[in-house]
Design goal:
about 20% strand; elongated; binds zinc ion
């Protein structure tokens, strides 16, 4: 059995017209009129395919194709329809429409499954309008209180609760999490690895550990001319010694280690003043828990050692951390089996970005399927992917779901 790649592509293009930007991307942010239009279009497609559509109290939308036994836990897939303000046509949308394509392909063959099949549209995955990425899946999985989600506001002061109510979504009902046997999420990779290695499918075994740190170093402001080098208290000097040590510590932890200094600020920020204060951020990621922890500890150790060596005061603190996720072995095996049955070129990988599946996997056996995107670009209006790759990913999704749907 195979999906209909042409139908999947045409639906992706039709959905992309809602919120289309002049640069060829999409701006369909969570709980805007455009988001509602996208959800309505999807609901019409789902109802025409004989499915029921249900929306929960945080705006997650569930499309259900009945199984022979309505009482059994469902086999689920899903992703998100909301985009970044300058987003693309595929991030999230692909996972939702690939799920719908699975249902329609089963319909084409009049293939019944024992278990019901559900496609989830998780509300506010991007967190760009309401500042909480993966909001809907976090509430559904019990990791975020419903009232906290309701209280989030956009820049104009409008709350999630107000927007849900404006769309006629009942906000008093408790979130009743349906029983799920297994969940799969198809997504574009959002990185360059599959394209660079000419692979069609990424079998995603987990999501890497990640954290963000802020380092502050106190120095002393001084005139850049009269002050001899050895009499300065220059925080940039500490950074200059720290960076090679940190890059080396990262390299020691293998090609999967990530270390990024994305923000550096000196105060007062004047060209002819030795800075009195330096602040920079460090983003650390690693798929292996032990290596990740070591790299975190190494950062703290190196900062303290360099501060001491230069006799300057300062500190390093962790400002955000997301623990890594190991996906369910059975679900990953189902994806591997589908790839093998279809004879596709695949590689195992760990996601560098967060996804709804991180939340879902806390309560339900979960795995992800990646397909390549051009140049690894995402969160970008130029985001693009090949129809053949998207079709291959949807076929993997179909077979992985089918392998769970009758057992
Ligand atoms: Zn996404």
């Amino acid at each position: 059995m195979r999906v209909n790649g042409a139908r999947l592509w045409s639906r992706l293009m039709e959905m992309a017209e809602i919120g289309a930007t002049v640069q060829g991307g999409c701006n369909r942010q969570a709980l805007t009129d455009l988001d509602l239009q996208g959800r309505s279009l999807l609901s019409r497609w789902a109802e025409a395919a004989g499915c029921t559509v249900r929306v929960d109290a945080v705006g997650n939308l569930f499309i259900r194709r009945p199984g022979r036994d309505a009482a059994l836990p469902v086999v689920m897939t899903g992703s998100h329809l909301d985009t970044q303000p300058t987003g693309g046509k595929f991030d999230g949308v692909y996972g939702v429409l690939a799920g719908l394509e699975v249902i329609e392909s089963l319909n084409d063959r009049a293939a019944a499954t024992l278990r019901p099949i559900e496609v989830a549209v998780w509300c506010n995955e991007e967190g760009s309008r309401f500042p909480m990425a993966m909001m809907g899946s976090a509430v559904w999985s019990g990791r975020l209180a419903l009232e906290t989600a309701y209280g989030l506001t956009d820049r104009g002061g409008t709350s999630v609760r107000q927007e849900l109510e404006r769309f006629g979504i009942a906000t008093h009902a408790p979130i009743a999490r349906q029983a799920v046997k297994a969940c799969f999420e198809a997504h574009i990779e959002q990185g360059p690895v599959l394209e660079e290695t000419s692979k069609t499918i990424g079998v995603v075994t987990g999501v890497q550990h990640m954290s963000r740190h802020e380092v502050v170093i106190e120095g002393q402001e001084a005139h850049a001319g009269p002050t001899p080098m050895h009499l300065r208290r220059d925080p940039v000097r500490v950074l200059a010694d720290l960076l090679p040590a940190l890059y080396a510590a990262t390299a020691q932890r293998g090609p999967q280690a990530r270390f990024t200094v994305g923000f550096i600020e000196t105060l007062p920020g004047s060209p002819n003043t030795v800075p009195g204060r330096l602040r920079f951020t460090v983003d650390i990621r690693h798929p292996d828990a032990g290596q990740y922890r070591e790299l975190r500890e190494e950062l703290e150790r190196l900062v303290r050692a360099e501060l001491e060596r230069h006799a300057l005061r300062g500190n390093v603190r962790c400002v955000w951390e997301a623990p890594g996720v190991s996906f369910d072995a059975g679900c990953v095996e189902a994806v591997r089996g589908a790839v093998a049955a279809l004879g596709l070129d695949a590689m195992e990988m760990v996601s560098g970005a967060g996804h709804d599946s991180c939340n879902v996997s806390a309560v339900v056996p979960t795995a992800m399927i990646f397909v390549p995107c051009a140049g690894g670009l995402s969160h970008n209006e130029a985001e693009s992917a090949l129809p053949a790759d998207l079709e291959a990913g949807a076929n993997v999704l179909l077979h992985a779901m089918m392998s769970m749907a009758d057992g």
